[in-house]
Design goal:
mainly alpha, 2 domains, single chain, 5 helices
């Protein structure tokens, strides 16, 4: 008897194997390339299902070995879909997680920058207390008044009166 191969016999197997290899290699790229092997695995699964449907409609026209190959390709494509689907989900979750962290950090920085500029415009000059001058390091000694006016009033009232009024001696 002359048996034919199913239409997806080599194609579904090749797509499934490539989807697995590229999907596993895509894990190194944070899963960004996992969409392509996911699509390849879906195409491989659809063609395998179509070929198996053709085999079920007319089993005498196709080889049992071809059916076995397509069934194996179907299983490989299902594994590739699950694996690449998980990789895509994890990468989307990671991008969303890191995106929220980065966006919150950017928003905090913007708020901090806005607060600093507001503080710059709202800056009040600090005034020194009058008692702080005694604590300063640049004052080395107390200044003593060289003219004691009270003592001069007791001893010489006339002379003091002229000195205070600004008259010359």
């Amino acid at each position: 008897m002359n048996y034919n191969k199913l239409s997806a016999d080599p194609l579904a197997m090749i797509l499934g194997i490539l989807a697995l290899v590229i999907g596993l290699a895509g894990c190194c790229c944070y899963g960004l390339t996992a969409i392509i092997p996911l699509v390849m695995a879906i195409i491989g699964l659809v063609t395998a299902n179509k070929s198996l449907r053709d085999f079920n409609q007319n089993p005498e026209a196709y080889s049992p070995q071809s059916r076995s190959n397509v069934n194996t390709a179907k299983i490989i494509n299902i594994i590739a879909i699950v694996l690449n689907g998980l990789i895509v989900m994890v990468s989307v979750i990671a991008i969303a997680f890191y995106g929220t962290i980065i966006s919150s950090a950017v928003l905090e920085e913007m708020n901090r920058t806005n607060n600093e500029t507001d503080d710059f415009y709202d800056y009040d000059m600090e005034t020194e207390d009058s008692d702080d001058w005694e604590d300063d390091d640049y004052i080395l000694e107390e200044q003593v008044d060289s003219i004691n006016i009270d003592a001069m009033e007791d001893k010489e009232p006339e002379l003091n009166k002229k000195f205070i009024e600004g008259d010359s001696l």
